[in-house]
Amino acid sequence: MTEADFYEWMDLFGKEFEAHGDKGRTFESTGGEQVINSLIEAIRDEDPGVRSMGAEALQVIGSRLLTVEHHGWLRPSHGDVSPESRRSLSRAVEPLITLLGDKIVSVRQFAAAALGKFGDKRAVEPLVATLWEDRSRDVREMAAEALGDIADERAVKPLVAALKDDDFGFDDHIVRVSAAYALGSIGDKKAVNALLDASETGDSKVRGAAAISLGKIGGARVFERLVTMVKSEGDYVRGSAAIGLGWLGDERAIDLLKEYRTTATTDFERENDPIANALKMLEDKTPQRE
Question: In what helix (H) or strand (E) does residue 93 lie, and over which residues does it extend?
């Protein structure tokens, strides 16, 4: 299967899905199983370009089939896919795990991303090993993100270590950002203390990611910490802390966020204003008063 063939199939899949609204049915009726077979052959090919294309295509399929959007975030969702489709997709997992050891960086990166979107727990330990051992920052970043997509508690300890930069020797805020977001996706309260520490120190993007994840997980000290961040941080981290408060769902934050709301003048600004989005999240969760 060539790249052009794959995207022709994806176009057909998209049109059929719009018509029927059933991911599993559409996958089967458009020949998805044959596509998976072809892509498994591709990721085993001797040509690294073919392997890279195959792994990227599997990532795209995983994103299209196995995730849903929730408040602007892609979340794993296998409920819309039939057991037959899941079995077909699962056959790609072991070949993708093998690709984590490929000599080509882009192949390893796409393989990690695809494993995350597929959500198969067989990939957890290989992805943790990739997070620890891979020499490429981009691959480690994607491994952390994939572990968040799979959301298995076995990943919490290594992700906390990556966030703290303990024993990893990364000294790399990009991997730490990805680890912070992943911990929020997993939602294990054992990560809260590390995220609280990360919200106070280091790069602004790390602090912002920690703030959002704290809001997703919650905890006794989280509300006060996020409020402090809204009041004391610059625009980027303040916006992230606002989104964290939106995820937390505590209506006490509404009046505070209204104080920091700015007047948007364009549709783009309105759609991308984190404080406005956080207020909408809170108002959606708050019962309307008489």
Answer: helix 93-99
